[in-house]
Amino acid sequence: MVVQSTLTHCSSIKTCNKHATDFTSIPVISLEDPESKSLMVKACEEYGFFKVVNHRVPMEFITRLESEALGFFNLPQFEKDKAGPPDPFGYGSKRIGSNGDVGWIEYLLLNTNPQVPSLKTLTVFQENPEFFRSAVNDYIQAVKTMAYEVLELIADGLKIEPRDALSKLLRDENSDSCFRLNHYPSCPELEALSGRNLVGFGEHTDPQIISVLRSNNTSGLQICLKDGTWVSVPPDETSFFINVGDALQVMTNGRLRSVKHRVLANTQNSRVSMIYFGGPPLSEKIVPLTSLMGRQEESLYKEFTWSEYKTSAYKSRLGDYRLGLFEKTSSTNQ
Known about the structure:
8-stranded mixed β-sheet; Iron_ascorbate_oxido_reductase; about 25% helix; 6-stranded mixed β-sheet; IPNS-like_FE2OG_OXY; globular; about 25% strand; alpha+beta; 8 helices
């Protein structure tokens, strides 16, 4: 596939010379496992990350949306540009955020509220925009249902009361959630970069409560372990990967840790990923949950709203330790 204009000359994008081993011990959790709640908590404490199987999201929804996404990303550049620049919804290419971060990537950012479609995006799907909207809505609704279940199982495992204390923030009609389709084109020039890896999406944590990721069968995703080691996550196009976000780290007073991750470009194959970012309403106060706090335990974080944190996070660089500004004591954690 030839990607024109904004995605030419991959050698101009940031490279990385860190070699990562495959993450063979990734927690794999079935939603049908009676022990899933405790397994999820353990995985979130240790890695901030796990894989979900037996998720009950129809494969038909997954493959239909991936086909629609590829149809869009295969369009000529001038056609895709009609859906951009993102505001924040719409089409973006190469630039990640507003502070100079770039990657070997193009993407569509969509609202998860079907009542508020991105007209800018729908103009691109001139042949059958309703089919695209239907594919997006079916997929998002199924993934939302799974995300609610995952958060309620985590709440059960942490003995949070009520058990919908987390999921209700995503169910709220004012939930500030979003959905992103990422495309990382293959980059044959990568072979000429002296063994260095081309960065598709730089290292970062997700600001929201939870992220639900599904990708095609192309490698590239890496996560950072507690000791600073980067490991590669083997792709699995039939399963979902769950990331703990910054907001959930705060709500559990640091017990669950948001996971730092990145995506590296693939030499031969393009990567397509779909990510649902579950966020609370903009006015929601992000504070440690009372039912998780010990009698003498103090919050590690200053009180803030999701709107305040989101604004701060999106003004920062990808690799910044975003929660540092909201900790009660200065931190050297990166």
